[in-house]
Amino acid sequence: MNAPFFKFGYFGEETSLIVAFIIGIGFGFFLERAGFGSGRKLAAQFYLTDLTVFKVMFTAIVTAMVGLFWLSVFGIVDLSLVYVSQTYLVPQIVGGLILGVGFVVGGYCPGTSCVAASTGKYDGMMYLVGIITGIVVFGEAFPLLKDFYSATPMGKITIPELVGVSYGLVVFLAILMALGGFVGAEWVEKKFATKVKGVGQ
Amino acid sequence: MKKIQLSLNQKLALILGILGFLAAFAGSPYTGNTATMNVKELALLVEKQTDHVSVEELADWIIKGRADHRLIDVRSVKEYEEYYIPTAENIPVASLFDAGLQRNEKLILYSEGGIHAAQAWFLLKAQRYNNSYILKDGLAEWKDRILFPSPAENASPEERSAFEKRKTVSAFFGGTPQTGTADTKTTAQIAMPKLDMPSASAASGSAPKKKKKEGC
C-alpha cells in the first residue's frame, strides 16, 4: 500500500468523507485533551504565561514533517501527490493577521472554538456564530474582494524549491528551530509566571 | 561517571533531533522517474485481460456521455490532428508524465494498432497509475467495427439485427457502414469522418471539469 490512499484510488470520494470525519473527531479529541477547549488556556498564550499552544502546534508540525519526509524517503508516501496549497503572499499575510486578531480577542481559533462549543461552552458557541457570520459576509462580498483574493500569486512553492537547498536540510533546520523554541518557551513561561500572578491558570 | 537521566520529553526531543540530523543527508524524498514494479501482478493482469476496454464499450460510453474516464491518444500530434476518437486528448508517449494525469482517474489509452498504447500502459502501471486501460486493438479496430462496420457474409437474422444496431452507432460517429459485398468493399472510397465531435481540449472551455476541493 502506498499513500496518499485517496490519490492512489484505494477508496472513493464517499469513503474519503468518512475518513475525514474520523480524522476530524480525532483532531478535536486531542485538542480537547491538550486543554484547548478553554479560552483561558488559549489566551494565556498571549500573556506568555502558558505556551502550551505553541508547544503542541510546533510538535504537530515537526512530527508530521519528519513522518512525511522519512516515509517518502522509504517510498511509502508519494510526496509529489500530497496537496500543497497555492501561495498568495499579501492576501495570506492579511488573512493571517485577521485570524490572529480574532484569536486574541475571542480566545479561540476556528478548530478550538468547535471543541469548546461541543463541550458546552457558551463563548465557544458564540465564536462559532461569529465564524459562520464571517463566512457568509465574506461569501457575499467576494465579488468586491476577488482581485485582492488572487493578488501576488506565487503558485505551489515550497521552501526547499524557493531557497534552492535540499529538502532534508530544511527538515533539519525546522527541527532545530522547534527544539530551540521548546527550550525558549519553557524559559519564557517560568519568567512570566512569576511576574504575572492570577492571569492564566 | 554519573548516569544522565532524561525525561520523556527530552528523550522524544533527542529522537527528533537525530531524525532531523539524518534527514539532512537522506537525499530527496521525491521518487522521480525511476520505478519498481510487481512483475508477477502485471503478468496476471495481462493474462486475465482485465486491462482491456473494447471499442464497443468505449463507443457506448461516449454516446452516453460518460465522464468518468479520460481517453488518451498516445499517437503523434500530426496523426491526432488527422483523426481522433471523439473526446480523446492527445498525449504522446514521451510527454505522458508531464501531462498532469491523476492516479485516481480512469485512463483509457489508444494508439493505431495497440502496441504503443500497451507500452504506455506499462509505463503508467510502473508509476502506479493503477486505473489505466488499453483500447483493445486500437484505432484500427475502431475503424473496422465502429466507423465502417460491414456485415458478415451469409449473416444469420440475429447478426443482421445486430448489424442494424451498429449502423446507428456508426452514424453517430459520422462513419459509413459498408454494404457488405466484396467488390464494394474494395472499390468504395473510405473517407474518414470529419471531426465535428468535440475533443477534450475543445470541450474543456465550455464545460469546465469539476474541480476537486482540497486543502483546509
Can you lay out the helices and strands and say which pair or pack?
The complex is a heterodimer of chains A (201) and B (216).
Chain A: H1 13-33, H2 39-44, H3 52-73, E1 87-88, H4 89-106, H5 110-118, H6 122-149, E2 153-155, H7 159-163, H8 167-195
Antiparallel strand pairs in A: 1-2
Chain B: H1 8-23, H2 39-48, E1 52-53, H3 55-64, E2 69-73, H4 77-82, E3 89-90, E4 106-110, H5 115-126, E5 132-135, H6 138-147, H7 157-172, H8 182-187, H9 200-206
Global structural class of chain B: alpha/beta
The major sheet of chain B is characterized as: 5 strands, parallel
Tally of structural domains of chain B: 2
CATH homology superfamily of the largest domain in chain B: Rhodanese-like domain
Task: Name the descriptors.
heterodimer, A: 201 residues, mainly alpha, two-stranded antiparallel ribbon, 8 helices, globular, B: 216 residues, alpha/beta, Oxidized Rhodanese, domain 1, 2 domains, five-stranded parallel sheet, 9 helices
What do these coordinates show?
- The complex is a heterodimer of chains A (201) and B (216).
- Chain A has 201 residues and is mostly helical.
- Chain A has a domain at 85-157.
- Chain A is built from eight helices and two strands.
- Chain A has helices spanning 13-33, 39-44, 52-73, 89-106, 110-118, 122-149, 159-163, 167-195; strands spanning 87-88, 153-155.
- Chain A has a two-stranded antiparallel ribbon.
- In chain A, helix 5 packs antiparallel against helix 6 (122-149).
- The longest helix of chain A has 29 residues, at 167-195.
- The model of chain A has no long low-confidence stretch (mean pLDDT 88).
- By secondary structure, chain B is α/β, with parallel strands linked by helices.
- Chain B has two domains: 39-143 and 194-204, Rhodanese-like domain (Oxidized Rhodanese, domain 1), CATH 3.40.250.10; 149-187, no CATH class.
- Chain B is built from nine helices and five strands; from the N terminus they run H-H-E-H-E-H-E-E-H-E-H-H-H-H.
- Chain B has helices at 8-23, 39-48, 55-64, 77-82, 115-126, 138-147, 157-172, 182-187, 200-206, and strands at residues 52-53, 69-73, 89-90, 106-110, 132-135.
- Chain B has a five-stranded parallel beta sheet.
- In chain B, strand 4, helix 5 (115-126) and strand 5 (132-135) form a beta-alpha-beta unit.
- At the A-B interface, helix 3 and helix 8 of A face helix 1 of B.
